[in-house]
Structures are given as C-alpha cells and as structure tokens.
Amino acid sequence: MFKKIAVLFMAAQLYSCSNAPKQDVSNSNLPKSEPIVAKLSEHDPHSFANSKECTVKHLDWEINIDFNAKILKGVAHWKIENKTGTNQLILDSRNLEIEKVTLNGEAETEFTLSAPHQVEVFGSALIINITPETQVVNIHYSTPKNAAALMWLEAEKTNGKRQPFLFTQSQAVLARTWIPCQDGPGVRFSYTADVTAPKDILVCMSAENPQKKSEDGKYHFEMHQPVPSYLMALVAGDLEFRSIGQRTGIYAEPEMADAVEYEFGLMQQMLEKAEALYGKYRWEQYDVVVLPPSFPFGGMENPRLTFATPTVVVGDRSLTSLIAHELAHSWSGNLVTNATWNDFWLNEGFTVYFEQRIMEEVYGRDYSEMLALNSYNGLLEEIAEFEQDGHSEATHLKLNLKEEDPDEGLTSIAYDKGYLFLRMLEETYGREPFDAFLKEYFNTHAFGVMTTEEFVEYLDKNLLSSNTELKEKCLINDWIYSPGLPANCPVIKSTKLDNVKKELGILTEVLKMNYPIITDTTGWSAHEYIYLTANLPKDISADQMAKIDAYFNFTNSSNSEILGQWFKHAARARYKDSYANMESFLVRVGRRKFLTPIYKALLNSPEGYLQAKEIYLKAKPNYHAVATETLDGLFEEYEKENKD
Ligand code: BES
Ligand code: ZN
After folding, report:
1. How confident is the model at residue 566 (pLDDT cuts 50, 70, 90)?
2. Which of ligand 1's atoms lies nearest the C-alpha of 406?
3. Residue 492 has pLDDT above 70, yes or no
4. How many CA atoms lie within 13 A of 306 on its CB side?
5. Which of 114, 166, 326, 598 could disulfide-link to 306, CB 3.0 to 4.6 Å?
6. What distance in Å separates the CA atoms of residue 266 and residue 190, rounded to the nearest whole number?
7. Is the CB of 561 under 6 A from ligand 1?
8. Domain residue ranges of the chain, discontinuous segments joined by +
9. What pLDDT does residue 105 have?
C-alpha cells in the first residue's frame, strides 16, 4: 500500500512569492510566463496554506448545485485574520475554475494559481493578493467536471430511481476539490451556506440541518462551531428524515428509511453512554445519513451528520459499531483534531478506543472483546505485510508522510495499534484514572488541534508522572515511534471466538480428511461467522470452499462483512459458484475496504486478472474517486509486473 512517490526536483523546493515569475490566470490573453511552483507548508506537509501568517476564520458559502452539468458554482466569502500583515492569502485548490477574486466590498484583486503539484491530490496553491487591512476575500468559482470529492449519481443509480444524488467526501485532502480553502486539519473555521438545488431534493451539510424538503430548493445552513475543512460535507438527494431520539435521527432514501430506522435504533442510547464516559456532546444534534452503496468508506464523521454506507444496514444491528465509531469522533477528531495527517492515529486510535467503550456499555464486554479480537487479527496481518514489503516505518503510530498522499497513511495501524496503545494505558494505570484523564483531555483541548508530540507531553504530565514505576513499563516511544507491537501489548480475550477457533480447527481437519462437516454454531452472532470466514486457511481450495458453502451458504450471506471475507477467498481459490454474487457485489458496492482485498485476490492469477478487468469496467462508474485511485494503482502494478 505504501507506494513510493517520485522525489521532487530541487527546483520545486525553491519558491519565492515575490521573485517567482507569475502566471496571471485571470488575464489569459497575455503571453504566458512560466507557471510558478509552490511549496507545501512547513507546518502541514499536505497543504500550501500560509495559515501561520494569514488564516481563514469564517466562510459564507453561496452555491448552486447543477445536476445536469455536474458542477457546483458560486462564491466562497472568506473572513480572514491577517496575523503578520502579509500581502498574500494562500489557499489550496485543485482544478477549480476561478472566475474572479474580490476583496471586502468586491474590489477585484489579482491572484495566481501555481503549477499543479506532482502528487496530484495536492493540487495548486491559490495565491491571492491582499492588503493588511483586507477582511473578506470573495472567490467566484466553479468545480470542474469530475471533482474528486464529489460523487454525482444519476437517478437510476439510487434506490428510488426518481432523483439524482450528490455526496461529498473531503477527508483527507479533497475539500480543495470543491471549495478553495486552507485544506489542513490544523485550520478551523465556522460557516454558513446558502445552497440552491432542484426542487424535490433535500440538501444537508455538516451543519444544522432541515428535516423537510424546501418548496423552492433553497437551503440555509449554519455551523457555529469551528471545524477543519476535511469535515465540510454536502449531500443532496431524495432523502427523508426519521427521528430516533431526542437529539438523534437518520436520513435515508424513502425505500430504506424503515430498515435504517431499525438498524440504528440504539443511536440515542449510544450518544448518552458516550456522554457519560467522556463529557457532553458539543454539537447539539447527532444524525446519520445513509448514502448509496458507492460511498467509498464505512462511515465519515461529518459533524452533526455522519455519512454512512448502506452495507451496514443488514437487518440485525450486527454492524452498528460503525455508528459508535463515527459518534466517538465527535470528541476524538472533531473536537480535538490531529494537527496534520501524520498525527492521524490521534484521530482514529482514540476513536476506536472510545468506540469499544461505547460498545461495551451497550452490548457488554463479551461482545466488545469479540469485535476487538477480529480487528486485532486484521492488524497482525497488516503488520506482517508491511514488514514483508520492507515498509516497517508504516507501522509507527506517528507517520512521516512528507510529499505523499495522506491516503497512504490510512491503514489499520492508526486504528488498531492506536487502540491497543490506549488500552495498554488503561490497563496499566487503571480504568478510572484513565477515563478521568481522557475526559479532561477532550475538555481542555476542545475545538483545538493536537500534535503527537504535544499529546505525549500532556500524557506525561497528566497521567504517566503520577507513577514513575508504571511509566517505565509503558514503553511510550516503542509504541509511537517504532514498528510493530511492543512487548506490553494488551491481550484480547474472547471465549466466544476461542470456541470458533476450535471449531475452525476441526473444520480444517475434516476438510483435509474429506469427512462431512459438522460444526456447532449454537448461539453464534454475525461476528463468529466473520471470524470464521476471515480465518479460513489461506490455501483453501475451490473444492473445499464448495463443501463449506454447501454447509454454511456464505455465498448468499446477507452480511456484507461475511461476503467481503468470503469473496476474497473465492477470488483467490477460483471458486466459481461464488462468481455471480461476487460480481454483483463488486458492481454495486463501492466501499474500498471490501473492494481492495477482493480485487487483490483476483489479481493473483492471469484468469483472475481478466475477470477483474471485466468487472472493473462495469463497476467503475459506480465507484468514488477515492476507490478508483486505489484500484487503478492495483491494476497498474499488476500490469507492470506481468508485461508479457
Ligand atoms: N474518518 C474515517 C474515514 C476516513 C479516514 C476517510 C481517512 C478518509 C481518510 C472514518 O471515521 C472511519 O474510520 N471509517 C471506517 C469505519 C470504522 C468503523 C473503522 C471505515 O470507513 O471503514
Ligand atoms: Zn474513524
């Protein structure tokens, strides 16, 4: 996963605002000079913004959603704070069409777009001339066709097939593809938005949301709490609201609303348990919108409105830890935010820990340990893979992605090694002191940002130094700045999964001997089956899969997690009876976590490759750019290695 990117030319490092030749894109009939090369910020290696000198504070966004042209067009009015009296405001942008930029009342000003960075996701610096007195910068712009954050779906691709659908995915650095902004997690701003959509479309944002469609397609949004750009989110479609509890609700297409209302029925309880653990929920309302299956992630913690995949709506509430996770981000991530994407584990590790605690409260320890152990096994596999590929630095908690797409850091290390680190602290210092510490941490740093180094310092002062003997045992540096899992890694104990392990051992023997299968599955939940399918022998044959399928019928499972595991084996073992269902799964579902392992497994053989190509051709229009970026990479790699 950790693909290396080309090292930049030395010239790219040399950038001076005043001396560099400028290309005035607003005046395109002048002879073009060399485009300028902008430098990524020292404070955030994934953004061009000069936020230490001049920072954005508030956005008033006016936008029109054009479903026919598949573009957004409007104005971003930025209120800024010029801290040093600089005469430039630098924003991030990627392929945006900037029509003009004006200051304060609307006096036009000059601006420059730098040459696009070699790493495509970084886009260009948008350098705007301002004066020390400038308070508002107005950018008149439109998004290009195929802006990477935006997923436009024709009506036929939705459940109801009546209205088209649009959703955004901004994390990590895609906000700049639909809003010119200082696109790093360290910059926060409040916002309002005035959005115009066609009639019969409901529009929601990561803000205070309407619960009914407007008559005229116009919507006004307010987000009073300051948020970083990666939490900017917009969704528009034929959506309906259902209240779950006093402060919780769901949005879904009408066809799915009943199912979603049942699936997420425990949301209000989760919210209350979360508050009891780590303090008041600071965002007033917590809703979830279920998107079409093209959504590339399981969930996205957009403030006040989590975006979720429909693949967790399975009818038995078995995959709702996703809601606990996204809800937990309302503290870890949205309230206290990783300063850069190299500190990503501060967002995700804390969130998985918090998620586990919510699940334990709602479903009990036996259940939450099962979830933890399934993730742990996945983590071990990923660590082994990184080590095999010579990328053990990718298994540090603190990352060092310089001029690399932060998406490269999106691995289970941040999530599950991060989780284990916090669990180790809990087990070493005791749950009560650790909970008090975490609660205080969220409170003290609310609406702020956090670097790994600042966290380590805070941890030391507020927890570790209370007992220096215990402190020694924590091996903090091994956890954060070293590869793999340190010696004091917590042990996850699940008698439920121990039992499945035993059954799986018997099953494997039985298959070898060609005896009939008998497995005692009494009392199994989806998670026992997930464990079983995830841990089938890596060299399982198609014949053996057929026998398992005859007994368990995994090919027709209604649980996406089980299907994800099963199709991975089917693809590798060339188990034909699964192909039809596997193909329809791959064409319908755009969740990258499922797609990547199945396509990878297909790319293990020449005939699998041909099958994968054919499926990808059909499926690609249903995938978001985040997913196609990864999958294109897999195909390219295969094709390079198998040239003849
Ligand atoms: N914030 C992440 C998703 C994300 C991370 C998007 C980095 C883009 C870049 C979200 O909270 C998340 O972790 N989602 C998980 C689900 C979760 C239950 C582990 C996912 O989508 O699988
Ligand atoms: Zn997360």
Report:
1. very high
2. 9
3. yes
4. 28
5. 326
6. 30
7. no
8. 11-238, 242-481, 495-641
9. 84
300 lines ligand 1 (CB under 6 A): yes
Q: Count other Cβ atoms within 10 Å, centred on residue 194.
A: 15
Q: Is the CB of 171 under 6 A from ligand 1?
A: yes
Q: Are 289 and 304 in contact (CB under 8 A)?
A: no
In the reported structure, the alpha carbon of residue 343 is separated from the centroid of ligand 2 by a whole-number distance in angstroms of 13
CATH topology of domain 495-641: 1.25.40
Ligand 1 nearest atom to the CA of residue 326, by list position? 11
Going by pLDDT thresholds of 50, 70 and 90, the confidence category of residue 32 is low
The set of residues, in sequence order, having a beta carbon less than 8 Å from that of 610 and lying 6+ positions away, is none
Closest atom of ligand 1 to 344 CA is: 7
Instruction: Give the pLDDT band (50/70/90) at residue 35.
Output: confident
Q: Is the CB of 358 under 6 A from ligand 1?
A: no
pLDDT for the residue numbered 10: 28
DSSP string covering 402-464: SSS-GGGG-SHIIIIIHHHHHHHHHHHH-HHHHHHHHHHHHHHTTTEEE-HHHHHHHHHHHTG
Our CA angle for 222, 223, 229, nearest 5°, is: 125
Helix, strand, coil % over all residues of the chain, rounded to 5: 45, 20, 40
Which residues are catalytically annotated?
326, 415
For the stretch 295-319, pLDDT in tens is 999 999 999 999 999 999 999 999 9
Domain 242-481 belongs to what architecture? Answer: Orthogonal Bundle (1.10)
Beta carbons within 10 angstroms of residue 225's beta carbon: 17
3, pLDDT greater than 60: no
Distance 328 CA to ligand 2 centre (A): 8
Q: What are phi and psi of 596, to 5 degrees?
A: -55, -50
pLDDT tens digits, one per residue of 318-375: 999 999 999 999 999 999 999 999 999 999 999 999 999 999 999 999 999 999 999 9
Global pTM? 0.95
593 Cβ closer than 6 Å to some ligand 1 atom: yes
How far apart, in whole angstroms, are the C-alpha atoms of residue 121 and residue 406?
9
Nearest CA to ligand 1 atom 22: 298
pLDDT at 8 over 90: no
Ligand 1 centroid distance, CA of 299 (Å) = 6
User: Residue type at 350?
Assistant: F
Segment 262-276, tens digit of pLDDT: 999 999 999 999 999
- Please state which of the four CATH numbers 1.10.405.10, 2.60.40.1930, 2.60.40.1730, 2.60.40.1120 is assigned to the domain occupying 11-238: 2.60.40.1730
Q: Which residue type is seen at 151?
A: M
Cα 146 to ligand 2 centre (Å): 26
- Could you report the per-residue pLDDT of 124-171, keeping only the tens digit for each? 999 999 999 999 999 999 999 999 999 999 999 999 999 999 999 999
First to last CA, the chain: 24
Q: What ligand has the least distance to the C-alpha of 306?
A: 1
- Per-residue pLDDT band for 106 (boundaries 50, 70, 90) equals confident
